[in-house]
Records
---
Amino acid sequence: MPCFKDKYTLTDRENIFLAKKFWSENIYCGMRLENRNVTFPETETILQGVNVPNVSLDDIVAILNMRDAWKHLLSTITANINIDYMCTINGLVSRNESLEWGVLRTGQVGISGTSYVPPLPALATVGEELSSLLASPASATEKALRLFLWGARSQLFWDGNKRTSLLLANKHLISNGCGILIIKDINMEQFSLLLTYFYNTNKEDLILHFLYENAIKGIDYPA
């Protein structure tokens, strides 16, 4: 099994500074994960409280929901990641967007563009899988990447699963001083192809390597 060592060892102050510096870009990343029709400049403008006439109300709500979820994440950086915390993040991310938000879904869903149909999430099973993932001997960076992929493929909630998983992965990275996870525009097409392959096969090596090499960002100091 490949070993993904931590790339960064940052102080709490450094990592929170980093997260705030990339605040707008990470929220925009969440929009791109869900194929939202909004640009980075539009996202920044909306976050500054300025109206953007060409952006739909649904997209504006999604951006502001991500903003609120990030604010909550940064104010609870020392909290444990558990089912309740996941539900709270999803409740902020998908507020007024889905059938229900902040609770595990109770109906069957599919994933667009794939043949994979995720099973209904059972509370006990979800708790066991999450606990096992976080208790593994892997590095904090690897746990964060696996947390992101597990949440995305499991589709635990009615909506906002990739955004919720992105936030949880960043919560784990930041609380351990390991940087942030952010998928840039230039990498989004390749990421989407690898994610679809992962959905269909449950083989994670390719996308783990891709995210590790291209999506972990930190503060680099001269040697």
---
Amino acid sequence: MKKTKKNVAAALIALSVVLAGGGTAYAAYHYLTAGEIADSVSVSDNRNLAEAFESQDAIVIDKSQESGAYVFQLLGIVTGSHLEPYVTNASKADIDSQKTYITMAISKKDGSAMANKKFCISPLIGGTPFEEVNNETLKTEMTWFEQDGVMYELVACDDLEVFADQGVWISAVDSFGDERNVFVLNPDGSYTKNAEYQGVSALFEVLFDSSGADNPKE
């Protein structure tokens, strides 16, 4: 998986919340939107990827999971032909209409800084072992930046909508390859977490429109 890093000035509001009677302070974050993340890591001056995330064709997920000391927030996904209205000839080298773009925010539960800690974000395809379809075969690239203690990751990979009829999951693990130990491919084709794994991980199911699949269901 190719990785690039770009330091940007992102506007993130951190609020300190004291739980009633607890006396312990926690940081409650207002995360950047998927469009703001795309805008922040853009390699050009155009906003076409950010606008695509803000369009009605984007999948707004905004779901979170806690694991270990971390909170994983899957914010949004935009993919394939839904990018075409925002892609000009001059910017096609920067934004590929045949790619899926995924945004995720990762923070510490106690509000402390991430200290540049990043995770491997990987799509998992239903009914298909990780060894057959993974970040390498999907030509995945990841761009990230840290701001005010939150790590933001923007992941680009081959179009995931074509797998809509099989099922798609977005996972997070410490390192590429950990997926084979962290997640279980069940007989019905679904992915779930390995109950015996004690490390940090996250797993989100994404529901794509099945009409975009290679073999759409009737």
